[in-house]
Amino acid sequence: MDDKIEKIGYLVLGFFALKVASWILSRLWVFGLAKPVDFAKFGEWAVITGGTDGIGAEYARQLATAGQNIIIVGRNQLKLEAMRKEITESSSATVELVRADLSKQDETAKAAETLKQMANEKQIGVLVNNAGVSYDFPEFFHKIQNSAEKLDQLVNVNCASMVQITAAVIGAMSERKTGLVVNIGSGTGDLICPLLSLYASSKAFVHHFTKCLRYEYESYGVHVQLISPHLVSSKMSKVRAGLLQPAPKKFVKSALASATRLQSTCGYFFHDLQHALVSNIPASLQNKLLFSMHESIRQRAYRKMKQN
Ligand SMILES: NC(=O)c1ccc[n+]([C@@H]2O[C@H](COP(=O)([O-])OP(=O)(O)OC[C@H]3O[C@@H](n4cnc5c(N)ncnc54)[C@H](OP(=O)(O)O)[C@@H]3O)[C@@H](O)[C@H]2O)c1
């Protein structure tokens, strides 16, 4: 009997060891060894929202280098023009600009109308829903809720604009039976995130919407991918680049390598690893850890404001 239990124990251990090994190997292959994805098979044009800074600007640069013509949606005309200049000088891509403040529903609706028309005239094969806003620093919800402007930004930029802009281009993709939609969520979208409640919840919406759309459009040849990064060094995160918080260039290179190969990923090997570890911590401990981490960032932000 004891022998039998021991054998079952080894079998279970072996099964989990195999699972972990195949998880690690598949990610090492995708992020490190696989050939670059051929984006031309989806079409000639890629749309990137929030393509004027951070992760979105890098998607625009790297998709242009990969041979795509680029449509950048952004709110700041000067930054849009600067991106067009940079990309056209460094690649053979044509760049078109759509100016819209995606926190304003009327401007988003107008941008979506423009993109719908573009999708009827051009082969838009890739859409990256990247534009996003977060809190300035972790904070109790009632203090965020008092700021109508912040609420508009979080709900409209992170959720509503993604929905409207996807609706504008995915129909044409499904008619052509090819396409790639990449929605940028966040590691927080899968975790209980005290003091970032509204941001994390807006990202949870992105995650759920992406997973539903994926199955809706699978048989139409349209890939719908969820990228949910942990910390990336940018204007939003305000952290310096390092192994666990890559610069946008490094992050997007790896996220692009995962397109069509991983349906849901953090987009970067060490973030996937971090996510797997954090998700397996018991929820009560996870919540305590995240609360105390965010509370200390909050206290630090208040001290800094007092000094200035
Ligand atoms: N950085 C991270 O650690 C991290 C982690 C998880 C998830 N993410 C997600 O990754 C995405 C990109 O973040 P990031 O770090 O690259 O941030 P970022 O550097 O702040 O860039 C955000 C982009 O969104 C644009 N944007 C913001 N509000 C807008 C509005 N109202 N209308 C139009 N465009 C607007 C910004 O435009 P301007 O150039 O005009 O500011 C910028 O191009 C976001 O969805 C974010 O939630 C980031």
- Strand order of the biggest β-sheet: 3-2-1-4-5-6-7
Written as H for each helix and E for each strand, in order along the chain, the element string is HEHEHEHEHHEHEHEHH
Number of helices: 10
Helix content: 55-70%
**Estimated structural class:** alpha/beta
Output mean pLDDT.
95
* Rg value: 21 Å
- The CATH homologous superfamily: NAD(P)-binding Rossmann-like Domain
**What is the global morphology?**
globular
Low-confidence parts, pLDDT < 50 over ≥5 residues? none
**What are the bound molecules?**
NADP nicotinamide-adenine-dinucleotide phosphate
Structure description:
With 308 residues, the protein is of the alpha/beta class. The radius of gyration is 21 Å and the shape is globular. Helix 2 packs across helix 8 (248-257) and helix 4 runs parallel beside helix 6. It has a seven-stranded parallel sheet, sandwiched between helices. The termini are far apart. It is built from ten helices and seven strands. Helix 2 (54-65) links the parallel strand 1 (45-49) and strand 2 (69-74). It has one domain: NAD(P)-binding Rossmann-like Domain (Rossmann fold), CATH 3.40.50. It has helices spanning 2-33, 54-65, 77-90, 105-121, 141-145, 148-176, 197-217, 248-257, 269-279, 283-307; strands at residues 45-49, 69-74, 95-99, 124-129, 179-184, 222-227, 264-265. The mean pLDDT is 95. It binds NADP nicotinamide-adenine-dinucleotide phosphate. Residues 50, 52-56, 74-76, 79, 101-103, 130-134, 153, 157, 184, 186, 229, 231-232, 234-237 line the site of NADP nicotinamide-adenine-dinucleotide phosphate (NAP). Keywords: Fatty acid biosynthesis, Fatty acid metabolism, Lipid biosynthesis, Lipid metabolism, Membrane, NADP, Oxidoreductase, Transmembrane, Transmembrane helix. One of its GO terms (molecular function) is oxidoreductase activity.
